[in-house]
C-alpha cells in the first residue's frame, strides 16, 4: 500500500501536536480506501469480467458487430467535431475572462457554466424545441430538406453544448493565477497579439489545455442524456456507443453490452492517466518563477 | 527621449487614481515616482508605457503626441515588480525575445542576436547562467535578467515598477546602486516607481512625490528632503515630530517653542504645526542658551547606527522621537525617567490650510 506508507513517513516528520492520533488516521484512510474499492474499483472490475465472461472470441465478436462499429465511428466523429470547436471557443473565452476586464464578464462566466447546471436531457430537449418538426425552425428546415434532429447534426450540436465548459473551466483559474504580467512584458517588447499568445501564453497553459481536452473528449464520447433525446436511436445510423450499450443491455445481450461498455471504461482509464500527468505538469508550471516570492 | 505628461486623469470605477497630473521628464534623467501605496504612481507609469489608457490628458514623447500609440510601438522598456520573466524560456531566450519577435525585415541575424544577448549578460553579470530557467535564479538575478530583456530592444524610455520591491534588504541596496551606475553609463531616460524614500533619495536625479492621485512636489532629492513643500512630503520623507501651536505675524509659538517664520509674516493668529525631523533635535542635561524644551526620557532604543530616544513633553501628548548618533548617545548615557532639555535645530512651520 504505497499511499499509506508515504503518509506515515511524512506524518512522522510532522509535529505531533497538529496531526490526528494514529488510530484516527488509520480509520480515515481505511474508510476512504474501502469507499474507493466499493464504488469505483469493483464496478470497473465488473465491467471487464462481464465483458470477457464468454471468452475473448465472444468479446471480439461483439465489437465486430456492424451496428457497434457504426456506433464507434459516430462517437469518434462526434468527438472529432466537438473537441476542436470547444477547444477554440474555450481558449478564446478563457483568454477574454482571465486577461481582460469588461462589462458583462461575470455574466459570461455564468453562461459558460450553464451546461453544467442544466440536466443533459433538458439540453437535448432544447435542441428538439428549436430544430424539431414542431420547433421554431422545424418547418423551415423541413422545407429545405435539412435534418438536424434524429440525425448526426443534432447529436453533434447536443454534445457540443454539453461539453462546452470543460476547456474554458479548466483554463480560467489557471490563466487568472498566472496573471497578465508576462503578456504585458511581451507587448512592451514589441510582440504582436498572436506572437504573445503563441510564444508566451500558450506554453504556460498547454498542460491545462490538454487536461481540458481530455475531459471534454471523455464527456463527448460518453454523453448519454442529451444525445439520447436528439438521436432517435436509428440503429447503425444515429446510435453512439453509450446508446448502443443501452440497446444491447435492454436486449439482454449482456456480454455484448459489457464488451462495448469496456471501450468506454478503457477510455476513462486513459483519461485518468493523462489527467494525472497534466495536473502534475500544471503544478510545476505554476511553481515556476514565483516560488521565491 | 523626453516624456511629457499633460493633465492626465484616470479613474477605476469610483476610485480616482490620478487627478490632472502634469509632469516633465527631461531626456536622459532618472526620475523616481515616490508615494504611499494607492497614490497612483504605478498607474501613471503604466499610462506612460501604454499599458493603461488615460481618461483625459496626453502623453508626449519628445514633444510628439503618443497618447494613442500602441504599447509595442512606444519603444519603452518595462520592468515589473515581480519580474514577469517568461517562465518556460531560458535566460538567453528571455533576453532575446524582443529581438526575435521583430518582423523579418528589421530582425537582426541569429549571430547578431547572440552577440547582443551575450553583451547584456556580461552587463548584468550573469554570463554563466544563459541556459538556466528563471525558477533557477535568485530574486536579484531575475530582476537583472528582466532589466537586460528590457534593454535588449534599445528602448527610448526605461520604466521600472517597484523594481526592487520583492527583494530582501541587502540585495535591494546592491541592485539600486548598480542601477544608478548603469544609468550613468547608458543614460536612457528612466522613470521608476517606489514607496521607499531612501531608495528614491539615493538613486534618482529627480523625485516626484505623489499622494492621492496628485503630485505634491517635484525636485532634486535634496530639494524635496530639505525644503518639503507640504506637510505630506515632510512626513513621508523620514521621521518627523509635530508641534501644535499658533503663528502670528512671522512668529510661531508651539508649546515652549518659539520660531521666527518670515514666510508667514502676513498671517495673523492662525493655528500652525511645526515639523521637526527626529535627527534635527539636540538633547542636553543643562538648558541651552536659547529657548529649549524640558522633557522626560521615556525610552531609549538602539537601532543600528542610531539611538532613538522617546521624550515626553509637558503639553505634548504624543511625545517626540529623537535620533542621536551612537557617539552622542554614549556621551549622554541617558536613563529612562531622567529630565533633559531638547532643542530643535530646524523647524518648518505649516499653517492649517495644508491638510495632510
From TrEMBL, chain A:
Q: Does the keyword Iron-sulfur apply?
A: no
Q: How does it sit in the membrane?
A: Multi-pass membrane protein
Annotated function: Part of the ABC transporter complex CysAWTP (TC 3.A.1.6.1) involved in sulfate/thiosulfate import. Probably responsible for the translocation of the substrate across the membrane.
The name under which this protein is listed is Sulfate transport system permease protein CysW
CDD domains (alphabetical): TM_PBP2
Highest taxon listed in the record's lineage: Bacteria
> Where in the numbering of this chain does the ABC transmembrane type-1 domain appear?
72-275
One of the record's GO molecular function terms: ABC-type sulfate transporter activity
Q: Name one Pfam family in it.
A: BPD_transp_1
Q: Mind telling me which GO cellular component terms the entry cites?
A: plasma membrane
Describe the protein's quaternary organization and the partners it interacts with: The complex is composed of two ATP-binding proteins (CysA), two transmembrane proteins (CysT and CysW) and a solute-binding protein (CysP).
| Provenance organism | Geomesophilobacter sediminis
Membrane spanning segments where? Answer: 23-48, 74-98, 118-136, 148-168, 252-274
What keywords sit in the KW lines? Answer: Cell inner membrane, Cell membrane, Membrane, Sulfate transport, Transmembrane, Transmembrane helix, Transport
**Family annotation (InterPro entries):** CysW_permease, MetI-like, MetI-like_sf, Sulph_transpt2
List localization entries. Answer: Cell inner membrane
- Give the primary localization class: membrane
UniProtKB/TrEMBL annotation, chain B:
Q: Can you quote a single GO CC term?
A: ATP-binding cassette (ABC) transporter complex
Q: Which residues are in the ABC transporter domain?
A: 3-237
Q: Where are the transmembrane segments?
A: none
| InterPro entries reported for this sequence | AAA+_ATPase, ABC_SmlMolc_Importer, ABC_transporter-like_ATP-bd, ABC_transporter-like_CS, CysA_C, Mo/tungstate-bd_C_term_dom, P-loop_NTPase, Sulph_transpt1
Looking up Gene3D superfamilies in the UniProt record yields: P-loop containing nucleotide triphosphate hydrolases (3.40.50.300)
Q: Which UniProt keywords apply?
A: ATP-binding, Cell membrane, Membrane, Nucleotide-binding, Sulfate transport, Translocase, Transport
- What GO molecular functions are on record for this protein? ABC-type sulfate transporter activity; ATP binding; ATP hydrolysis activity
Q: What is this protein called?
A: Sulfate/molybdate ABC transporter ATP-binding protein
Instruction: Please tell me the species this chain comes from.
Output: Geomesophilobacter sediminis
